[in-house]
Amino acid sequence: MSKRALHVHANADTLNQAVADQIATLSAQAISRHGSFFVALSGGSTPRRLYQLLSSPAYTDHIDWPQVHIFFGDERCVPHDHPDSNFRMADEALLAHVPIPVRQIHAIPTDASAAGDNAASYERVLRDCLPHDNSGGWPQFDLVLLGLGPDGHTASLFPDTAILRERQRAAAAVYVDKLDAWRISLTLPTLEQARQLLFMVTGSDKAEIVRHALQPLPDDAILPVQRLQPGGSVGWHIDRAAAAALADQATS
Ligand code: 6PG
Which atom of ligand 1 is the closest one to the Cα of 183? Predict the structure, then answer.
């Protein structure tokens, strides 16, 4: 049974500080446990400041970067130097500034003409590189960072898409009608197998979807993020603005 912890922070800065500290702790635990720290980074805009904080002097000495293996929770099917690329955002904010061996940075391939081929390549990397320390032999992350979209998507698990039914592949391609774009994403089982999921949600524009996700009403339509049945620990880090619609919100 997974454990869920909700942390409401005064603002995005205190949220980023708390998440960075938790990542430092999780990395030390993972490296102590099996010699490496396998983490999937989130995309979008929210985590950029966190990545910049992790690349600052306050953390460069607190995390054993040469033992860190970087993956991505999802990617837009654009070149890695495209402004919309999650890899580009993480590279500019973090990866170019910390001593992680290049062979341990696993960008989701976006070069093939067919998104499915890229997803299949990425899945092979997941299965080859990640530990499988669970009964099902599923590739297992130490940590997956996640955001929450205004429609309740996380990673690229968007409402009414076929990927929500994918239980065989560890990663898959998904065509998102409303974006008129292909994405590649970790699938629900891969997220569910992770030892730790950390959601980061900020801003008043996310208040209603946070309420829906964390305090569902009986008639609320189930969101993609609510389909998750995590086996590990789940942390929600939200700022006070994103927590505004929650019934009771004690600030961490
Ligand atoms: C992406 C992300 C996506 C993101 C949410 C929240 O590729 O866009 O993986 O799941 O986390 O859409 O995005 P913001 O942080 O920009 O609000």
Answer: 7
